[in-house]
Specification:
By secondary structure, the chain is α+β, with helices and mostly antiparallel strands. It has 5 helices and 13 strands.
Length: about 325
């Protein structure tokens, strides 16, 4: 199901405006750094930065409001359909920006746990002015999540431009922060809510142990269900009979796309069993915030071991005094 929102032409115009305003924000931030000792110039540049930030916020809101609402899954526990706002026109939209994704805030259902996925890029990699992490080419699941007795995943199919894409939605009977989440599809981090309504922010590694491409075995275990391609009724299937997702061809590792160059970003972690726990091996960091205190609608970035802006979440340059994305003055 798809709601009527902006056209491809309208979307491309908005995406172009976002790119240009981001470049302008970055340049003004550089100018602020270079003129940090001149109060008059600083005052002028801060006004310019605030104006550009407001313009960027407005156009990003237009982008998220214009995106299609796709119903892509169904909860195996409650039978409720699961919908998301997503850019299906192509991977060149900022919804797919791995470091500074522009996405609408969507309240979690009681059973939603995580969203991952993959995109089959069969031809040349798409061009975009940012990093893209669409996942592997074929469906996969996280054994770490599915080994928990409370969690079941559902696999389905959509189109992102001309590419086949496969969302995998994880559902849990018991939502608890004791189970580490997993990076949200297309990003290097996740934002979620725990049972008490607190926002959880964290990041996991693209560790090879997080990826299992033998989806047939998980279907047979009853841990993975699937929806037929183009099935608007979202009927859940729980057997491998006639499953169209088994043994698909394509690369079996997550990829990073930068400047139309696609590279394998699978991480092989080496550590001693007695030095680190299983949970720590896959987890980077988790922090709790009040939902109202964090700007979740426009998800920013938080790369591993890199500082990020407390106002918008964007990655900060080393020794920066201002955020190049929102202009927030740093301590």
């Amino acid at each position: 199901m798809k709601t009527d929102h902006f056209s491809k032409k309208e979307r491309d115009k908005i995406v172009s405006a976002i790119v240009q305003l981001r470049k302008k924000m970055e340049q003004v931030s550089i100018d602020l750094e270079e003129n940090s000792d001149d109060e008059g110039v600083q005052e002028y540049l801060m006004k310019k930065l605030d104006k550009t930030s407001d313009e960027l916020e407005k156009i990003e809101n237009e982008y998220t409001q214009g995106l299609a609402i796709k119903t892509i899954s169904r909860c195996p526990f409650s039978a409720e359909p699961f919908s998301i706002s997503i850019d299906t026109f192509g991977l060149d939209g900022p919804w797919w920006d791995a470091d500074q994704a522009v996405r609408a805030y969507e309240e979690e259902s009681k059973t939603f746990f995580a969203l991952t996925g993959c995109v089959t890029i069969s031809d040349e990699a798409p061009e975009a002015p940012f990093s893209i992490k669409p996942g592997p080419a074929v469906p996969w699941v996280s054994p770490r999540l599915l080994e928990n007795e409370n969690i079941i995943a559902v696999l389905s199919h959509i189109k992102i431009g001309l590419f086949d894409a496969y969302p995998i939605v994880y559902y849990s009977k018991n939502k608890t922060v004791e189970i580490e989440r997993i990076n949200t599809w297309g990003t290097d981090e996740y934002f979620a809510e725990d049972a008490d309504g607190l926002a959880i922010m964290g990041s996991t590694f693209d560790d090879e142990e997080e990826y299992d491409f033998d989806i047939a075995s998980w279907i047979e275990k009853g841990k993975l269900k699937w929806i037929s391609m183009d099935d608007d009724s979202l009927e859940l299937h729980d057997t491998i009979d006639d499953c169209p997702y088994i043994d698909l061809s394509g690369y079996r590792h997550p990829v990073l796309i930068q400047n139309k160059i696609m590279t394998d970003c699978m991480i092989i972690l080496e550590y001693e069993d007695d030095e680190i726990s299983d949970n720590d091996a896959t987890s980077y960091e988790t922090s709790n915030y009040e939902v109202s205190d964090y700007n979740v609608p426009e998800i920013g970035s938080a790369k591993k071991a890199v500082n990020f802006c407390s106002n918008c979440g964007s990655t900060l340059k080393e020794n920066a005094k201002f955020c190049s994305n929102c202009g927030h003055k740093l301590n």
